Amino acid sequence: MNASDCDTDWIALLAARDGAPPAGIHSPLFGPVLAPPSAPDGCRVVGRLAQTLDGRIATATGSSQWIGGPGDMLHTHRLRALCHAVVIGAGTVRHDDPRLTTREVPGPNPVRVVIDTDRRLSADYRVFREDPPTLLACAEDARGGDRHGTAEVLRLPRSPAGGIEPEALLRALAARGLTRVFVEGGGLTVSRFLAAGCLDRLHVTVAPVLLGSGIPAFTLPEVPRIADGLRFSWHVHEIPPDILLDIELCRMKPGMAS
Ligand SMILES: NC(=O)c1ccc[n+]([C@@H]2O[C@H](COP(=O)([O-])OP(=O)(O)OC[C@H]3O[C@@H](n4cnc5c(N)ncnc54)[C@H](OP(=O)(O)O)[C@@H]3O)[C@@H](O)[C@H]2O)c1
């Protein structure tokens, strides 16, 4: 897969977004993302991160552009185009001020969902000022009104593990018809969905870079033995110079026997 992929294959896959069977060169990677939801929350959820060989998604100062190559960027925009909603954490908004659109590929923009538990972000970021629509997911007891800039505010229960409850967010999105959900980052946000057993699929790009320090990809509860780690199967795709690992999580979470 690379940035010059045959667009007709991509257009064929986009048709699968609306129910046609996935076909073509992209279907092994994206077919599982397009599968119907089977979890009780009503959503199909894919997480994604681009990390260095030593498991960092950004430098210690928060610089992450760009860990992956052009193929990773294309892949990220494709996931946005296939999903109804893209979820990111407040830390990523603060560092990157992203737009979260599909400008690199044909396909619709997803609804943007920013998790900012205590509403610490100002309304000056692009997601709160510009189209497409944004939902701000915060705690039920967070201060402020029903709008944050142009974004609608969604109030959800706090999780004892930190942040808001991922399951509650998924149920709220499903109630709005947003059933295919892309959790794009950063590391804490993807980790919280993973720790809650809320990811069907995880796409991890590994770039041939060592930073030696920086923001970690995964932050999960400590385990005492290797055997207690979360073990899974994966499919490896080449997106030179990187590799993309397509991981079948199937809603597993740390602490489950595998
Ligand atoms: N390589 C990649 O694939 C990739 C993808 C996305 C982002 N990134 C990078 O990852 C970094 C962010 O990741 P992350 O794991 O630190 O966080 P994140 O998952 O984006 O956001 C979640 C965290 O943001 C916190 N937060 C930190 N500072 C905040 C502030 N000033 N205002 C509001 N909330 C704040 C939240 O607090 P609560 O506990 O209150 O919820 C929560 O802990 C950025 O440097 C970004 O560039 C890399």
Summarize the entry for a quick read.
InterPro entries: DHFR-like_dom_sf, RibDG_C, Riboflavin_Biosynth_HTPR. This protein is α/β, with parallel strands linked by helices. Helix content is 22%, strand content 25%.
Can you walk through the features of this model?
- By secondary structure, the chain is an alpha/beta fold.
- It has one domain (7-208, 231-248): Dihydrofolate Reductase, subunit A.
- Helices cover 22% and strands 25% of the residues.
- It has a 10-stranded mixed β-sheet with strand order 6-7-5-4-3-8-1-9-12-11, with helices on both faces. The chain has a two-stranded antiparallel sheet with strand order 2-10.
- The model has no long low-confidence stretch (mean pLDDT 95).
- Residues 49-50, 57-58, 62, 64, 67, 88-92, 94-96, 116-118, 120-121, 162-163, 185-189, 215 line the site of NADP nicotinamide-adenine-dinucleotide phosphate.
Task: Report mean pLDDT, rounded to a whole number.
Answer: 95
**Secondary-structure element series:** HHEEHEHEEEEHEHEEEE
CATH topology: Dihydrofolate Reductase, subunit A
Bound molecules: NADP nicotinamide-adenine-dinucleotide phosphate
Strand line-up across the major sheet? 6-7-5-4-3-8-1-9-12-11
Main sheet overview: 10 strands, mixed
Rg calculated over all Cα atoms: 17 Å
Strand content: 15-25%
- The CATH class is identified as Alpha Beta
Helicity range: 10-25%
Strand tally is 12
CATH architecture: 3-Layer(aba) Sandwich
What is the helix tally?
6
The CATH superfamily is identified as Dihydrofolate Reductase, subunit A
Distance between the termini: 31 Å
Overall number of structural domains: 1
Summing up helix and strand content along with how strands pair, one would put the structural category as alpha/beta
Low-confidence residue ranges: none
Categorize the overall geometry.
globular
